[in-house]
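Q: Structure tokens for this one, please.
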Amino acid sequence: VFGPPKPPVDRLAEEKEILAYIRQKNGRISALDLVELMGWDFARAEEEATRLLVNYGGEPEVTDDGVVVYAFKEIRKTAAPGQPEPSVPRAWERLESKPPLTGNATGTNVAIGLFNGFNLLAPFWIVPAFEAQMAERFVGQEFLLHDYPLLFSSMLFAVPLGRWVVEKFRDRGRKKRNARKRLLQRVLVRRGQAAPQEALAPDAELAQALDKELVALGGDIETDANGQVLYSFPRVREEFAAMEKARAQASTRERNPGAIVFSSKD
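A: Here is the predicted structure, written as tokens:
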């Protein structure tokens, strides 16, 4: 009736993934990295990056091009170099799916529906015939034989129906959020280079997301020599280039924790 139980949620799961990603990227990220990982806009990404700086002892660095690099040198330290880091999914790999209505197999739902339908119709069909053969009525007969079966059976149909209606409305929001993530993938694969709408948004959902999210993703509209309208993302281009340079210059000595005084292996 109320749907299958939801798995427990780890409230720190996203933060653990971000920290693993920071280690993979030589301890340096930009707001663009958080946009790529979580699908946030730049404003939200900058807020979260600042919070991470405070919580994990990071420090901001500004490149010659004005790109803010969030450096977390302490996070890089490890006593086991060469250990593979866990794979961190990107935003477009976190698409939302519609939750199951009941979690049951189709045959199970049909059987429950038939059984509950029988109980729902019984007060109009079997119960009157049963009451006609009774010598006298008993206390609470109307409630037990009519009201209660109708109320209980109606609820078993009404609750899933109501949840289905609610999920139909929620599905609109899910589709918009998923379209935004799919658009983000197309923008980042091109590293923010200018492209026509057909390349970035070949369907109606992506086109709507492009119009809505252009400014939030640091995008701009320009035209080429032939007058064709192109969508470019200069901030994405700048941060990609700046982060490649910053990570290449990061010293490997940052990973050295110093002399090992005690090891659990001993």
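A few notes: Strands lie at 28-29, 59-62, 68-71, 220-223, 229-232. The first helix runs from residue 13 to 24.
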